[in-house]
Records
---
Amino acid sequence: MAKHHVAAQVNGDEVEFLCETEETLLDVLRDTLNLTGSKEGCSSGDCGACSITLDGRLVCSCLVLGCEVGGRRIETIEGMARGETLHPLQQKFLEHAALQCGICTPGFLVASKALLERDRDPTETEIRYWLAGNLCRCTGYDKIIKAVMDAAAKMRRG
Amino acid sequence: MRYQAPESLDAAVALLAGAQGEARVLAGGTDLLVQLRADLVDPELIVDIKKIREARTVAEERGGWRIGAAVTGAELKENTRLKQDWPGVVEAANLIGSTQIQGRATLGGNLCNGSPAADSVPALIAAGATAAVVGPRGRRDVPVEDVMIGPRKLSLTKGELIASFFLPPRGRGAADAYLRFIPRTEMDIAVVGVGINLALDGAGTITTARVSLGAVAEKVLLVPEAAQAIVGSRLDDAAQERLAAQARRACRPIDDKRGTIDFRIDVAGVLARRVASIAYERARLR
């Protein structure tokens, strides 16, 4: 059957693409739109490396079909920095060395941003639960949690 | 593989009924997409129900609640009034997967995936929820305990889908709760799950109860004998012991990587006591 023609908003830009039914939104982002910041880890919704927001809601893009997103608003890691200016979360991940290999990092950043948009002052426990669907095999998580807490404090100060 | 996203239940039913090969309903996709990826299913047609108003709406109805089959766990959690009325149902739905999964996973999908370990199903059964099933022969209300008949097997027939669930009026002095056992704190599948819903009279005596057990049989169980064990009591120690014994008697689990038969049976009794205590305290405060 013919490919689906989909029009959506990605990081503020109106985009159109063609996709097969079985292509996931992650496939479309990476292979069609060349937005390779979202990573493919498990492809089963367990690791969070492909985290994006869909109409502001944090989801795994590997568990969304490309053909589902017509008219929807998508935000990926590519939309996080403003030009050369890093988002406070990105800056704090660097300062705290909250990454090693980096594969999980875009997912952690997108997920952490979604948290701080809902809660300006989450506790450490709330951060750990919110990020339970993001797996990191390098850092042991502590540096990531500290970076998120520090970024939240910085954003509260404005 | 065709993809359709109809905007009405009639159109969805017509698509499902007219499918030449296997057809699958897509709600949140957190099970279906994994199964597609693993080649466990190979449908000819996918019918996305998220553009159908009833499937995507939460609303108070006749003193109770109508919850669309494709409403996400995150949306349920944000509905403070629903959470006040049915905390057990909402907390059970919110135990499914991570934040990301909560952004997509639905009650309809959790039930129709057909897993005996589905977290929201014991809570729905304990609540006395019915599923609004629509199909080629019209619409019918089915008690949730009658939807699943075994692992990956439902009582729905070709062309049928669940549009929404109805939770009955809550009433005063009544509450529900759900707990599951998993070997870690988050992101796991229930080894045992227990949902209990009960109502008290003014003196704190339990007048009605429903007890449902997950992951201890080929489907999620409604256990009237366990409910009878606490009706007429104030959930004293003896009543809790009777409840635990009846819950354990109802179990017919399997050994698997998540738990042994003996462990599951034992934990079912422990959890039943704890869940009943939580529901009882909540009911006393309402």
---
Amino acid sequence: MADKSIIGMDIGTTVIPVERGKIREFAAAILDESPEYETEGPPAPPTFTMTVAFWPRVGPMPDLGLNYMRVLHAEQQYEYLLPVQAGDTLTAHTTIDDVYTKEGKKGGTLTFVVFKTSFTNQRNETAIVARQVIVETAKAAV
Amino acid sequence: MSELPLLQFDAVAEGEDVAPFVLENVNRTHFVKYAGASGDFNPMHHDDTMAQAVGYPSVFGHGMFSAGVLSGYVTRLIGGVANLRKFSTQFRGQIWPGDTVTFSAKITGKSTENGENRVDMDLAVTNQDGKAIVLGSATAALTS
């Protein structure tokens, strides 16, 4: 089980090139046929930064004490500070923002871990701040 | 995609329900396209054999698939991605093949911040039984 000792822990950095074709593919996958994605410099869709999964993390993934068989995605939050569009390069830096517990309705303690990721553009400006909340259940999630 | 209204600051009122977007008959291709685009290849979203082996009736959609379609509904309402300031989602349930899913929004607040006219919205993704799949909120800048 994760505990408060991991708050503030550095989870590493990932560099994401924001590519026009990937934006088209992502927009199609979220069923968005808006003409803004057909331009030469399309914006990144609001949840496009999920594609961080394709790019290698710099630095080791520390052991957070989580049992991933019991982990579910509980919440996802974004603050948009500056536009992001094709041609930009984002650097994602993730830290552990918070850890807290709640008593589950079906018994057992739920442990919530909040990952905060700042996405900085090629001008070293923070463009997006994302928070991902995962929950570790007392029993297996499946 | 059905036609959605373009929200304008002067025309919307607190408490107003916005025209929903309905996605009928969700299918496995939706999940597979999202897996490929996002890089989330958790087999629970594309492999029925593995999903059934752990007790699910079938594959089910990624939470971020529903959140992504919801984000597209919102950005069309507000006139583009550039007008979105905040977008938050909580995952409450699963989306299954064959479901008909409704994406909806309600105006909860109007304000002027940083020289912008902004609205706050509550968001929901619900299935054909009225069960919440995703609940969320958004803040957007609108033209008057």
---
Amino acid sequence: MHEVSLIESVVALVEEERRKQYFERVRVIRLRLGALGHAEPEALRFCFDAVTNGTVAAGARLEIEMVPGEGWCESCCRTVPLEERFATCPVCGADVRMTAGDELRVAEMEVE
Amino acid sequence: MCTVCGCGTAEPLESHDHHHPHHHGHHRHEHADQPIDFGSGPAGLQIAGLSPRRVISIERDILSKNQAFADANRLRLQRAGVFALNLVSSPGSGKTALLVRAITDLKQHYPIAVVEGDQQTSHDADRIRATGVPAVQINTGKGCHLDAHMVGHALDRLPLEAGGLLFIENVGNLVCPAGFDLGEAHKIVVLSVTEGEDKPLKYPDMFAAADVMLLNKSDLLPHLEFDVDSCIAAALRVNPHIRILAVSARTGQGLESFYAWIAAQAARSTASA
């Protein structure tokens, strides 16, 4: 369940932000998550309330924006969609270097 | 103390057979033979007050904190001239047996230190210490992987000698340790032939993150229906650059190639430091 420690890391980023600028509570935390990454959105949601309870992020709503997988195909010289991390180019079958879909970011939060 | 976050240290567990005649009070001694416990942690803090509702842009990687610790560990190891390997696998692949064998074979050539990660117990560190090299056990508690912060504290308790090797045995788990850089030079994934040959496809993140795959327990191949070629093809599909070595911790077969790889990579990393 490394989603627990990922949410703990999110809380740490929120706490760090509060040392820079004061706010009383967090209403929404928005994450950007790659579809081909190793974190499972449902598992993050599942543990979010339990992990944030008693922290500065307690009571916040978790919103997750999924980023679809994309890769750069050298032979087609263009960006192609990637269904899985090590898929080949859907057009020409060549190897593709993944360029999107591995994100694991805190995008923004709404505070008051 | 952490140079990254400034924290003192995690709580070393007092071992039950190790009685001190005096009271520690708030102060705790650090002993290299005691596990570091990251399983118990307090909640955060809360300050009252008012402020208007607003949106704050963060745009930071969730793992950026771990990355800062990992970068610090890597710099520290490079400066000390220590070559670090992070061993990852599912539970039961034979990581500890492999380490015990490798340490026995290599300890006359290199100073060796070991960080052991498990959810509970110091059984593995005890097995390593029996070979005569220093080992620190990290108990992750509820955690399913080692992170760079824990490893930084373990480094505080180990001798880091120039020209030495550091083996980090991660928690047995083919999923989570893939995402956590510890500051190692390379990740080594251990897959045993008693597991499925399609594991690289089922757990691609780990095989993509590793530079070497050790196919362990290969002495059992005559008794199994494990298809080595299809396993190698699966590993190369998720990571075309992965180096694959069939080994046996029990018989020692194939380990010479692994030791040769270590010698070459360690020399390269010392030369570039």
---
Amino acid sequence: MQPLLTIQGPEAALFWILAPLSVAAALGMLLVKKAVHSALLLAWVMITLAIFYIAQDAAFLGVVQVIVYTGAVMMLFLFILMLVGVDSSDSLTETITGLRPIAITAAVGLGGLLVSLLGRATLGREPIGLEIANTAGNVQGLSELLFSKYVFPFEVVSALLITAALGAMVLAHHQRTNPRPSQREQAINRFRSGSLAGAAGLPGPGVFARHNAVDVPALLPDGTPAPSSISATLKARGDVLDSGQFQLDNVDTTVVEEK
Amino acid sequence: MSLDNYLYLSAILFTIGAVGVVVRRNAIVVFMCIELMLNAANLSFVTFARMNGNLDGQVVAFFTMVVAACEVVVGLAIIVTIYRSRRSASVDDASLLRR
């Protein structure tokens, strides 16, 4: 078989289209503010890598990459993002002064080192390609190796998986240190606290106001807006409107509604 | 185009991941950057498998994926545990051992 020297045609086109896109997405991961956007960009990088795997005669790994990484791992990341929610750690301000220039310098150094190393290194012979190794099929070839030469690492990895699952269960298990207050105790606490304002529970957003959106505070019976009626999450995101503009005295009631 | 270009791409992605680990403060984003580094290493493994004409590199990449999955599970559980006690996912806030 003729040794595979260079890659031409479709694969080269695929590479030159997808490689810049994946590098751009990876850079975007560092630059975007919200963690959810980072997760989506990382999912894109992983999909491009899966395409590269399939282009490089690693069909099984390409499919596993899509199923395990973009399917399971990124979904797990998104679940945890939903669980943890937004907080101040999303901001891009540097907390350690001078960290960013040092990090970029070190990164340029590391990248230059790796690239120049790859540029100087030679394999000693021409790249062979996987046509011979994949004659029986990629999955068959992999399984043959996995269950003969690599059978012991395979078993060790299974032990690792079980240990990781157990470890995650132990870490995620939450033991209460104080008993959960019953409804009766909660009611008593509400009535015995300083004021009776919250005795009937907090007002919902938009109640008795001119809007019923969740970012609009409720109006109390005396016409003053109730900031406590708005979810703390909206406040943390900065998506909340100013309560004062909804005070009854300030609201412009002369607007004629459209028919 | 030679097969080396895949290796260059892998090196660049690895470097970007390394920068992310150092620069970002949100523990989840730091974790995603570690995943990016693992993926970049996997791309090199697959490329070397193709250069050498045997499937050993692909088997190693497969093992890397399994280990990465384990790492994600345990790491995210740790992040959730830290978040539960400290109400923050910032890597700067987890400094209990400093004192």
